C-alpha cells in the first residue's frame, strides 16, 4: 500500500519519506545495530536501519527525490516541525508514522525518532534522527546562522553529522561541527565540489584530510569507535557495483534465500514450533540457524573492514534439547522477513568487499568469499529441504504446508 500526502512542498522545509519495506522490524532493536546512510543526487539522503525501516530526507520538493525504494508502504511528509516516530511491530504488514507521545524516549527500541531541533528565519531546520541508539544530525545547505548552544548541550553524543555544504560555506560549517562534536561528519553538497572548494572546506573544518569514496554509502552505529578527532567524509551519489564474478555468487545466494523464504512464509507459528517425534529440530530452528550463520559470518568480515559494524551473533543453540526459540510467536512471514533483513544487511554493506580476493581468506574470517557464498547457497537449500521433510512427520499441524 502506498500512502502519499502533502505534495506541495516549500523548498525551506524538509521532505520526509518514511518507507517501511517488506523487512518488518522485530520486537526490539539492539544498541549498536548498524545503519546505512546514503547520499543521492540533489542532496537527498536515506537512512536504512538494520531492521528494514527506511527514511528519505530531501531538502527540496518531492520531484527531487532520487533514491530507489522497493515496493512497500511509503509516506511522504512535509511539515515545519517534526517530532515523529516510525515503527513496525512483529507479524504486522504495515508500519506506523505518527507523532511521538509526550515524554517519549528518543532511544525507544524498534523505532526511528525524527525531531526538529531548531529552525532559522527562513524555515530551514536541523533534524535529529535517532535509531538503535545511534544519533544522526542532518543540517541543510540553506541553513542560516542560528543559536546552537542550548540544543547542542541537551543533545546526546552525535555519531554522524550530515552537513549540507553551500557554495559559500563561510564559518557556519565549523560552528555546527563544534556545537555537536560528532564522531563523523558526512559532507552533503547539493552539487559537486571543485578541488578548490573541498580544500576550503577542509581548512574551515580544521581537519587534516577529507576521506573520499566513490560509492554513496557509509556505515554508522552507536557502538562505533571514537576517533581522536572528528572524521570528515565525502561519498558519491551512486551505489557500489560488485564485479561480475562476485555479483554472480551473491545472486545465487539471494535466489536460494528467496526460495527458502517462500517455504517458511507459508507456515504458521504452530507449524514453526512443531517438534518432530524423531527428535530432530523444529522448522523455526532451521530458519534461525540459516539466518544466524549468514549474519555472523558476514558481520565478522564487515567488522574487520569497518569497526562501525559490530559482529552480530543470533545463532540458536545447536542441540535440539538446548534450543530455545528467539521469537516463538513469530509467524512464517516474519521469519521470512528476518531472513530478508539479513540478506539486506549483507548487500547493504557489500561495498566493503571492494578489492577483497575471492580466493583468499576474507578479513576477520577463515572463509574465502567464494567458499562462503557457495556454502550459504547450499546451506539454504539443505535446511529448507530438512524443513519440508517434516511436513510428513506424524503430528504435523494442519495448514497450508501440510500438502507440500
UniProtKB/TrEMBL annotation:
InterPro entries: DinB-like, DinB/YfiT-like. Residues 1-29 form the signal peptide. Keywords: Signal. Residues 384-404 are annotated as: Disordered. Residues 255-384 form the DinB-like domain. SUPFAM superfamilies: DinB/YfiT-like putative metalloenzymes. It holds the Pfam family DinB_2. This is DinB superfamily protein.
